[in-house]
Amino acid sequence: MGTTQLESVPEPKYWHLKTVLSEALDSEFSVGEILPNERDLAARFGVARATLRQALEQLELEGRLQRRRGVGTTVAPPRMGVSLGTGPHTWPGGPEDAWQPVDCTSAVPPGAVADALETGSDEPVHIVRRSRVSQGRPVAAELLYIPRSSVPDLTGIDAPSGSARARAVLRELQRLELDRQENAVELGSAGADDARELDRLPGAPVLVVTTRFVVAGRVAALSVATYRADTCRLTFGDAGGVEIHAGPERRAS
């Protein structure tokens, strides 16, 4: 068979430079280290600064680099890991849970959440806000919606709000016998609140992981977790589950 037009197109110069830079990051730099300025890097690799910028932008998209205003371009830490669809089903807030409770409020949830929880359109639910940090940077934010019927014994809890209230709600959830959890992943863009929590600009790409916790055939809680897209990598395992994890591989899946 003859060579197709696509196969005959040479590799863009910036893409080749990205590969070279990636190898240099692995061998010469450590996490958090600041890279030389663009002029010095362009001179070292013998390329135009425009080509260098394209390569740096691609590495930033892949999560290898971070550009921080007033600091410069630094080597990013490894991508954070979270497993979906594999292993035992557990309630949030368990001993091995990496999330940190931030606050707990009572409010009417969005319509789609109310439908999933089968609560009334004007019925308040507990909303636990949690965060996840890796290598000192925020990488994910979560809103956990819990109907009052799932945690009926909260009336005796003294803490009206804050992280103590959040932990109390999570402890009460542990009392329920979890049947299963159902996960879904979709690509989205950061709204104003998520962008502020994740230290990103509004509209930045994010991964939204929605988890339904099912007890006795009903949804007892619903989690909406928003991850920085530059901190995660998706792979599909033999069991059919989806995993977002860190690893030595740097190629996009």
User: Main β-sheet: number of strands, strand sense, barrel status?
Assistant: 6 strands, antiparallel
Cα-based radius of gyration, to the nearest Å: 22 Å
**Average predicted local confidence, pLDDT:** 80
Low-confidence stretches: 1-9, 238-242, 247-253
Helical content class: 25-40%
Shape descriptor reads elongated
Structure in words:
The strands form three sheets. Strands 4-5-6-9-8-7 form a six-stranded antiparallel β-sheet. The protein has 253 residues and is an alpha+beta fold. The chain has helices spanning 5-8, 13-28, 38-45, 49-61, 111-117, 162-173, 192-198; strands spanning 65-68, 72-75, 82-83, 100-107, 125-134, 137-146, 180-189, 205-215, 218-228, 234-236, 242-244. Mean pLDDT is 80; it is low at 1-9, 238-242 and 247-253. 26% of the residues lie in helices and 30% in strands. The longest helix is centred in the N-terminal third of the chain and has 16 residues, at 13-28. The protein contains seven helices and eleven strands.
Primary descriptors:
alpha+beta; three-stranded antiparallel beta sheet; six-stranded antiparallel beta sheet; 253 residues; elongated
